[in-house]
Amino acid sequence: MKATIATVKNHLEETVTIGAWLHNKRSSGKIAFLQLRDGTGFIQGVVVKSAVSEEVFEMAKSLTQETSLYVTGKVVEDNRSPLGYELQVSDLEVIHEAEDYPITPKEHGTEFLMDHRHLWLRSKRQHAIMKVRNEIIRSTYEFFNQEGFVKVDPPILTGASAEGTTELFHTKYFDEDAYLSQSGQLYMEAAAMALGRVFSFGPTFRAEKSKTRRHLIEFWMIEPEMAFIDHEESLKIQENYVSHVVQSVLENCKIELQTLERDTSKLENIKAPFPRITYDDAIQFLKDKGFDDIDWGDDFGAPHETAIAEAYDKPVFITHFPIEIKAFYMKPDPNNSKVALCADLIAPEGYGEIIGGSERIDDLELMKQRYDEHQLNGPAYEWYLQLRKYGSVPHSGFGLGLERTVAWITGTEHIRETIPFPRLLNRLYP
């Protein structure tokens, strides 16, 4: 009977055959321990000399790292294993013998591992991170489906910038200019006017020449937009969404979090509501902490975000940023036109901003004014202005960066490990 490592729990005391790769092994004169992986998980196969043919035992001792094989054996309980089971091997069949596998159990430098990213993904740690990433994606769809959102796919090739910046990848679109999308938000606003509550999940691109542990050139964003939802209602949806994702990972990725040695006590507390601090109060807090390099009107850097986050044991919203340092489409606070109805959600433990969101401008005349201020009067933005002309309504939205969220939840120091094949400032291979 064929099985996978993930399904062996359904075959206790039964004999199964698993297609696998040899992750590692150790052996003595009478027993060989095979660390096996098949993509769904890791399991130990025990080959006892007295229980198998001489040919099988010699094969077990000579297997090389990452050799692919079919392993047949009996599933038994093993309380010492994170999986809870092991395989008492009765037969082996080599599919392909791997020779001189470059990533050995010894330590390797980061650049070496990045050059071999296509193979590094096979390691236990990288496997665990990818499984957590998958669970975050799965629970994202679950949350928004339960909340009545419709999945909409915005274009990747666009004729204009969503943020009004120059950090765009330019390309020719036949005889006109085009750019790789840095956000699907503008298109999602159009979709929200048609479908009410929508969300996108797709790749975005920033031509930002940054080498920090928080930045990628290509990354994935979850971008919901919601008609008839104000800033306050949006914050509640954001904190409920993040809470749902974290609790889903805790429930469904126990082995992976154990592999990563993640302190799950710090995640168990991540439940809505989240604390909030205004930009004004954040500036004063930082000054009280001795940060003399920050003044009202400045944006926060990584040290500032970390200092604020350390004051809380949950993600914290920083709200009401100055209009001047935020995107053109953010709605001013009716009680203070110098600040926007917006918020950044800062993750604990120094992982920085994971969500940026705001209530959007819904007034046609104010949006025209913003267009003039930001010199956005070209034809590429005309359709976005029309959203305020034909049945405008209050609406809000936000964007969550998947890789930063994976880094925080897994406790991964550098964002390059949170995406299968990272695109960095100096890396386009593999």
From TrEMBL:
CC per GO annotation: cytoplasm
Pfam families: tRNA-synt_2, tRNA_anti-codon
SUPFAM superfamilies with a match to the protein in the record: Class II aaRS and biotin synthetases, Nucleic acid-binding proteins
EC nos: 6.1.1.22
Gene Ontology BP terms: asparaginyl-tRNA aminoacylation
Localization: Cytoplasm
Top-level taxon: Bacteria
Domain Aminoacyl-transfer RNA synthetases class-II family profile as annotated: residue spans: 130-430
Keywords: Aminoacyl-tRNA synthetase, ATP-binding, Cytoplasm, Ligase, Nucleotide-binding, Protein biosynthesis
PROSITE patterns, A to Z: AA_TRNA_LIGASE_II
Catalysis performed (reactions): tRNA(Asn) + L-asparagine + ATP = L-asparaginyl-tRNA(Asn) + AMP + diphosphate + H(+)
UniProt main location, coarse: cytoplasm
InterPro entries: Aa-tRNA-synt_II (IPR004364), aa-tRNA-synth_II (IPR006195), aa-tRNA-synth_II/BPL/LPL (IPR045864), Asn-tRNA-ligase (IPR004522), Asp/Asn-tRNA-synth_IIb (IPR002312), NA-bd_OB-fold (IPR012340), NA-bd_OB_tRNA (IPR004365)
Enzyme class: ligase
GO function terms (MF aspect): asparagine-tRNA ligase activity; ATP binding; catalytic activity, acting on a protein; nucleic acid binding; transferase activity
Subunit-structure text: Homodimer.
UniProt similarity note: Belongs to the class-II aminoacyl-tRNA synthetase family.
Annotated protein name in UniProt: Asparagine--tRNA ligase
Lineage: Bacteria, Bacillati, Bacillota, Bacilli, Bacillales
